[in-house]
Amino acid sequence: MCGECCLGKGGVYLDRPGAEAAAGCMGLAFARFEELFLEREPSGLYSVASSPGPEGHCLLFRDGLCLVHPVKPPICRAWPRLRAIVTDPGAFLEAGGACPGLARLDFEGLSSEYRGGGRALPPRSFKAVLLAKARPSGVGPGGRGEG
Ligand code: SF4
């Protein structure tokens, strides 16, 4: 709840069901929530708060809390367990400089959970997971199977 991971802009995506859940969480009609907090991408996904708030935080960050915490975007739920951080000591160190929680962990301990398949690795891209979920199974952008 330090808010460090909510600083900056970009890289936070929701699909339509996720965006509807977030709107519901705030008691807002979807159109109003979209107007206030989202940008629609050509891919059909929603980019959350691509302009940061007054102190550089995500627009959904208020008074030390995420306004949609129970249904927050997948990458926010996963943080700091991102693939690079749990597999690459350099990325772990770099992220630890901005994340007080991560700075209390050691790389060996965290990464050992994933070595040998004990725990599934986080996806390479949460955006790609959302896009794959939104696309009908086996059908590519051109309407043909992707093989
Ligand atoms: S959606 Fe919530 S958890 Fe994610 S960056 Fe914004 S305020 Fe932080």
Short description:
The protein is mostly helical and 147 residues long. The chain has helices spanning 16-25, 30-37, 74-78, 83-87, 89-96, 100-103, 107-112, 126-134; strands at residues 13-14, 38-40, 46-48, 61-62, 65-66.
Describe the structure.
The chain is mainly α and 147 residues long. It has a domain at 4-68. It has 8 helices and 5 strands, in the order E-H-H-E-E-E-E-H-H-H-H-H-H. It has helices at 16-25, 30-37, 74-78, 83-87, 89-96, 100-103, 107-112, 126-134; strands at residues 13-14, 38-40, 46-48, 61-62, 65-66. A 3-stranded antiparallel beta sheet has the order 1-3-2. Strands 4-5 form a two-stranded antiparallel sheet. The longest helix is centred in the first third of the chain and has 10 residues, at 16-25. It is globular. Mean pLDDT is 88; it is low at 138-147. It binds iron/sulfur cluster (SF4). Iron/sulfur cluster binds at residues 6, 12, 48-49, 58, 60-61, 66, 68, 72-73, 76.
Strand-helix topology:
Blueprint: E1 13-14, H1 16-25, H2 30-37, E2 38-40, E3 46-48, E4 61-62, E5 65-66, H3 74-78, H4 83-87, H5 89-96, H6 100-103, H7 107-112, H8 126-134
This protein binds iron/sulfur cluster.
